[in-house]
Amino acid sequence: MTRVGLVSGVALVLVAGAAAWVVAAEPQDIPEGLTFLGAPVTAERVALGQDLYAANCASCHGANLEGQPDWRRRNEDGRMPAPPHDASGHTWHHADRQLFTITKLGVGAVVPGYESDMPAYEGILSDDEITAVLAFIKSTWPDRERGFQAEVTANDGDGS
To answer: Which has the closest alpha carbon to 71: 113, 117, 36?
Structure first.
C-alpha cells in the first residue's frame, strides 16, 4: 500500500468516526409531555440515561431493552431472568415511584423477601442518574404503553 493510500484510509476512518459521533450525539425525539416523577424529561436527560443504561443495565436487560431469554421462567437457582424494559415486558405496568424504588433499593424493597440478581443501585448511581435511566426507558415505549404507565403513576398516590 502506498503512503498516500494509507493516509487516505486513516483520514476516511477518522471522518467516518467523527460523523458517527455527531449522529450519536444528536438529541433524540422525546415524546411530548414525557415526565418522570412529575418532572419534564429533556433530550439531555434521555441521552444521559441511555449512556448510563448501556454502562449499568444492558449487560442483563439487553442493549435494546429486550431482557434475557425465557425471562418469564425461573432459572435453576429459583430466580427470575432479567425482564425486558421494552413494550414486550412489564416495566410499563409500574408507577414511576415504584420503578425508582426498585432500581435504587432493589426488588426486595417493593416485594419483601424477594430475591433477585438485580443489584440495588443506591451508592452506585445517584438519584438523578437513576431517574435519567428510567426516563430513557420510558422514552422508548410506544404511546399505548406510555399512556398506561402515566395512568398507573397518576393513580399511585405518592407516585408522582
So the answer is: 117
Handedness of CA 129, 130, 131, 134 (dihedral sign): positive
Distance CA 136, CA 30 (A): 9
Cβ contact 160:97 at 8 Å: yes
C-alpha cell belonging to residue 48: 444521559
Whether the model clears a pTM of 0.90, i.e. scores above it, the answer is no
Q: Are 133 and 125 in contact (CB under 8 A)?
A: yes
Enter the C-alpha cell of residue 58. Answer: 444492558
Write out pLDDT tens, residues 68-109. Answer: 999 999 999 999 999 999 999 999 999 999 999 999 999 999
User: Could you tell me the fold of the domain covering 31-154?
Assistant: Cytochrome Bc1 Complex; Chain D, domain 2 (1.10.760)
